[in-house]
Amino acid sequence: MTSEQVEVPLMPTNVRLAYSDDRESLSVRNSVLPLVDPDSTLEIPKDVADGFLILLSSGIKSFNAIKVQKEEVKEAKKSSAGSGEATAQSPLPDSSTEMTSEELSAIQLAFAALTDGNVIEATFGVESTGGLKRHKNTSEVAYNASKAAKQAIMDAAIPSDSIRQLAVETYIKAFEIVVTYHINLSTVGFITWCFKHQKFRDTAADELMSAFGPLAEAIAASI
């Protein structure tokens, strides 16, 4: 995405960014900072999204795993429809269960990937240069928005392990949505492409915004 292609700012005009007094870092002075750009996120190639998903989930989730799960759900629905039995629902995880040391370590590594890598930048359409400089094909608005989002997450996570975990879970969910979007697109035929493609994209964009809601609220509350 070039700077000429950006028409709508990713950063709301009522968000003010400033360097903090105690350290040279970008600080958020408003709670409406965007943490993701849905359009840019859905433009992430399937293989790249799959790589991010595997990285953040320590290999537990992947494109292939999600595809198999969708096929199993589809078959289960067919079976239940034929037998008249309701499809069994998977039990929700117990959020009160304490994480093991291995799980805590995985969260720490995944969070480091978010804050030190280019995962967040990808969700704003920022092309990586392998360093801190902005790629010539990346708009300044997108670049600054991604940096501000990353700094906001880092600042909020300093006093709160729960925000660190929530951030990791949120971006895992984001890439699950992207991967599912690509899987859905692969089922669309040529004749129905325009209609179904837009429907899948709108649904995925809405899911992305909903997925980031809790994290945005947690960060806003920490400021």
Give an account of the 3D structure:
Residues 89-99 have a biased composition (Polar residues). This protein has one domain (33-81, 101-222). The longest helix is centred in the C-terminal third of the chain and has 25 residues, at 161-185. The radius of gyration is 19 Å and the shape is globular. The chain is 58% helix and 3% strand. Strand 1 (17-19) and strand 2 (26-28) form a beta hairpin. It has 9 helices and 2 strands, in the order E-E-H-H-H-H-H-H-H-H-H. It has a two-stranded antiparallel sheet. It has 223 residues and is mostly helical. Mean pLDDT is 78; it is low at 1-31 and 86-96. It has helices spanning 38-42, 46-56, 63-83, 101-116, 119-122, 140-157, 161-185, 193-211, 213-222, and strands spanning 17-19, 26-28.
Describe the SSE topology:
Blueprint (H helix, E strand, L loop, with lengths): L16 E3 L6 E3 L9 H5 L3 H11 L6 H21 L17 H16 L2 H4 L17 H18 L3 H25 L7 H19 L1 H10 L1
Antiparallel strand pairs: 1-2
